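FAQ

Q: What does a record look like?
A: Structure on top, sequence underneath. For example:
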C-alpha cells in the first residue's frame, strides 16, 4: 500500500470561500480537530495577508504538535519573512511558496517572461532555505502550463531545494485523464523528481476535484491537498472526506492509504460547517444529512434484507454514531457524561456540569434529545465570547395582518438591565431593531441563514449571521428549538464579537472554554 499524505488547506484555501472569515479562536478550534483527524500537514493561512493572520498561525503553531503547520507565501522575500515570523515556534513548520507558471497568468497577471518566472521561483526557494528545512513550491495554474515549461520550473525549484512540488489545477479545468498525465510526464522528464513529494491541489469548478485528485494519485502524487466539506475559493477544493473514503472504500483499486482517522470525519465536518457558516447540503457525499438515508421502498426493502445492497460505507465508519443511550429529561449526569465520551468529548467535571444544565434546559423544551442536539449544544457553547450583552428575555407580538413588534430585555456587562421595543418588516427585523436600540451599535447585517440541525417539529434550528462594522466582519451563531430566540442570540453574539475585536485591537487570544479538552 502506498502512503498518501493529506495536506489540509481548510484554514487557508477554505477560508478563501466568499463570506468566510475565521477568528483566531475559531482557527485554533478547527486546527486542533484537524490534528485529531490525522492530517499530515495543515495550511493555516497566508501570513502576509494581515497581522491577525500571523497571530492566528502563531497561536495554532503553539498548540499543534503532531501535524506540520504551513503558511502560504508569494515568491517574495517579504512574504517568506512573515511566514517565518508566524511559524518560527512551530514544532514542525513548512513554508508553501507559489508562483504562477501558465501563459495566461504570466502574461496578464504577473507580466513576466518565462525566464523571470524561473528566476523568481528559484530565488524564493533559495531565500526560504534561510529559515525552513521543509519548503513546498506550487506552480500556480500548473494544469494550464506548457508541459515543457512546467518541467523546467519544477526542475529548477527542485534543484534549489524544494521538498514538495504541488501542481495545482487552480481553476478546476482539468479532466482526470489530463491531470493524471501531468504527474506521469513530470516524473519522466524532471531529473531528481523521485527525491521530492508530488502533490495535487484541485478545484471543483467542473465538479471533478475529487476525481482529479484520485487521478493524480494514479499518476504518482503522494500528497493530496483538500479541504473539509470541499470548501474553498469559488466552487471549492477537493473534499477531504471524499478523497479519504474513496481511497479506503476502493483500496483494491488505488492500493493507497492515508493516516486519516475516518471516525473523526463527521465531527470535523460539523465543526467546520458551524464555524465557517458554510452549511453542508443534504446530498453531499459522506457528510450530508442524507448520505446514509434510504427513502424509497425498494431501497428500504433491500437494506433490511442486506445492508450492502444499497450501502457502500457504514455511517459509523465516518463517526455518525448509532443512538445507544436514549437521552432525555430523565437522564442523569452519569449517562450524560457517558454520552459525551461516546460523542468524543473529554470535559472537566465543571464543564460537564455546565453542559448538563444546558442539556436539562433543552429537555424541558424537546421530548427526545438526539446526539446531534447535544453536539450542537456543545458547539454553540464553544462559540461563546466575552459578553458585553446577554439576552435575558424576548417577546414578540406577531399577526399576519399586523406589524411585528419585539421587546427585548438585555443584561449589560455591569449588571444593568435594559429593555427596548421596536417594530420591523418581519419578526427577525423587529428583534434586531430592538437589540440595536439597546446596544447602540451601528452594524450591517451581511448575511442571515437558518437551518434545521435535527429532525422533527421540535428540531433544533441553527441561525447564522454575519455582521460588519468599519471593516470588522464577524459571524454569530446560535442553536435553539426556537428560531427567533436563536436569531436574537446569534445577533447579540456577533455584536459581542465586534465589541471584543474593537476593544482588543491587538486581538489577544482568549483561552478556549471547552474544545481544548475535546477528544
Ligand atoms: C490561487 C490562490 O489561492 S493564491 C492565494 C490567494 N489568497 C490571497 O490572495 C489571500 C491573501 N491576499 C492578500 O491579503 C493580499 O492579496 C496580499 C496582502 C497578499 C497582497 O496585497 P497587495 O499588495 O495589495 O496586492 P494585490 O493583492 O492587489 O495584488 C497581488 C500582487 O502580487 C503579485 N503576485 C501574485 N502572485 C504572486 C506570487 N506568487 N509571487 C509574487 N508576486 C505575486 C501580483 O502580480 C500583484 O502584483 P502587482 O501589485 O505588482 O501587480
Ligand atoms: C496557492 C495555490 C496552491 C492554490 O491555492 C491554487 O493554485 O489553487
Ligand atoms: Mg487553491
Amino acid at each position: 500500500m502506498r502512503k498518501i499524505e493529506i495536506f489540509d488547506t481548510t484554514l487557508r484555501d477554505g477560508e478563501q470561500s466568499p463570506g468566510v472569515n475565521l477568528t483566531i479562536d475559531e482557527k485554533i478550534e478547527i486546527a486542533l480537530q484537524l490534528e485529531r483527524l490525522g492530517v499530515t500537514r495543515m495550511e493555516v493561512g497566508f501570513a502576509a495577508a494581515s497581522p491577525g493572520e500571523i497571530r492566528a498561525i502563531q497561536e495554532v503553531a503553539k498548540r499543534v504538535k503532531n501535524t506540520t503547520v504551513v503558511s502560504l507565501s508569494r515568491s517574495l522575500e517579504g512574504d517568506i519573512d512573515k511566514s517565518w515570523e508566524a511559524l518560527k515556534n512551530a514544532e514542525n513548520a513548512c513554508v508553501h511558496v507559489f508562483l504562477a507558471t501558465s501563459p495566461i497568468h504570466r502574461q496578464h497577471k504577473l507580466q513576466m517572461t518565462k525566464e523571470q518566472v524561473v528566476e523568481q521561483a528559484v530565488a524564493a526557494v533559495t531565500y526560504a532555505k534561510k529559515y525552513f528545512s521543509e519548503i513546498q513550491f506550487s506552480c500556480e495554474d500548473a494544469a494550464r502550463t506548457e508541459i515543457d515549461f512546467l518541467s523546467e520550473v519544477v526542475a529548477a525549484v527542485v534543484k534549489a531545494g524544494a521538498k514538495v512540488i504541488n501542481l495545482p489545477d487552480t481553476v478546476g479545468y482539468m479532466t482526470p485523464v489530463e491531470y493524471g498525465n501531468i504527474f506521469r510526464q513530470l516524473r519522466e522528464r524532471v531529473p531528481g523528481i523521485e527525491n521530492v513529494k508530488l502533490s495535487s491541489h484541485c478545484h471543483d469548478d467542473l465538479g471533478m476535484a475529487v476525481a482529479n485528485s484520485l487521478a493524480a494519485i494514479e499518476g504518482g502524487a503522494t500528497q493530496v491537498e483538500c479541504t473539509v466539506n470541499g470548501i474553498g475559493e469559488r466552487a471549492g477544493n477537493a473534499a477531504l472526506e471524499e478523497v479519504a473514503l474513496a481511497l479506503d472504500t476502493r483500496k483494491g483499486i488505488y492500493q493507497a492509504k492515508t493516516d486519516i482517522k475516518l471516525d473523526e470525519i463527521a465531527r470535523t465536518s460539523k465543526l467546520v460547517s458551524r464555524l465557517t457558516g458554510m452549511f453542508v447540503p443534504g446530498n453531499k457525499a459522506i457528510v450530508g444529512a442524507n448520505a446514509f438515508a434510504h427513502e424509497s421502498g425498494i431501497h428500504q426493502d433491500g437494506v433490511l434484507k442486506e445492508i450492502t445492497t444499497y450501502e457502500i460505507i457504514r455511517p459509523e465508519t465516518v463517526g455518525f454514531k448509532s443512538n445507544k443511550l436514549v437521552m432525555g429529561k430523565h437522564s442523569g449526569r452519569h449517562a450524560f457524561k457517558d454520552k459525551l465520551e461516546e460523542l468524543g468529548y473529554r470535559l472537566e467535571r465543571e464543564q460537564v456540569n455546565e453542559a448538563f444544565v444546558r442539556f436539562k434546559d433543552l429537555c424541558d423544551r424537546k421530548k427526545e434529545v438526539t446526539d446531534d442536539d447535544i453536539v450542537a449544544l456543545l458547539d454553540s457553547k464553544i462559540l461563546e465570547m466575552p459578553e458585553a450583552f446577554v439576552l435575558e428575555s424576548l417577546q414578540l407580538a406577531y399577526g399576519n395582518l399586523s406589524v411585528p413588534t419585539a421587546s427585548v430585555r438585555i443584561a449589560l456587562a455591569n449588571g444593568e438591565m435594559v429593555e427596548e421595543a421596536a417594530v420591523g418588516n418581519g419578526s427577525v427585523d423587529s428583534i434586531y431593531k430592538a437589540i440595536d436600540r439597546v446596544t447602540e451599535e451601528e452594524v450591517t447585517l451581511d448575511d442571515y441563514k437558518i437551518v434545521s440541525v435535527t429532525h422533527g417539529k421540535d428540531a433544533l434550528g441553527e441561525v447564522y449571521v454575519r455582521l460588519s462594522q468599519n471593516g470588522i466582519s464577524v459571524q454569530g451563531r446560535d442553536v435553539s428549538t426556537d428560531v427567533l430566540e436563536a436569531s436574537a442570540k446569534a445577533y447579540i453574539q456577533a455584536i459581542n464579537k465586534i465589541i471584543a475585536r474593537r476593544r482588543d485591537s491587538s486581538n489577544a487570544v482568549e483561552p478556549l472554554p471547552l474544545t481544548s479538552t475535546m477528544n
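Q: Is there anything notable about this one?
A: The pocket of 3-methyl-2-oxobutanoic acid (ligand 2) is lined by residues 13, 72, 98, 138, 140, 166, 168, 170, 201, 203 (CB under 6 Å).
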